Amino acid sequence: MTPTRAEDIATSAFVWLCGQEELLPVFLSASGASADDLGAALRSGTGPDQAILMAALDFILMRDDTVMAACSAQDLPYDQLAMAQAVLSGAGQMHWT
User: Fold this and answer.
1) Is the pLDDT of residue 91 over 80?
2) Three-state SS for 26?
3) Alpha-carbon distances, residue 67 vs 21, 62, 75, 95 (angstroms)
4) Taking Cα atoms as reference points, which of 27, 22, 13, 8 lies closest to residue 67?
5) What is d(CA 21, CA 27) in angstroms, rounded to the nearest whole number?
6) Mean pLDDT of the chain
7) What gap in Å lies between CA 66 and CA 47, rounded to an integer?
8) What is the DSSP letter of 49?
9) What percent of the chain clears pLDDT 70, i.e. is strictly above it?
């Protein structure tokens, strides 16, 4: 997965999360972000910064049902969010040899 594709997936996941009435308050509490922070990230001409994208991915990836819902909404295979997280965090670049 390319970094651009990973960022696109993360941005879509972030937008999906912002539209979830039950999950959004939990995310705000867990991340320390405010509704104003999210609004600013959504309105930004450059899109959300990597920190908020990673926070959204980390939050979504904590529960299988949330992963499935987010991926289904975006018509993605279930492994794509974890792959995007790995690429954006640099873990996709790790070599163990």
Assistant:
1) no
2) helix
3) 16, 8, 12, 26
4) 13
5) 10
6) 88
7) 23
8) -
9) 91
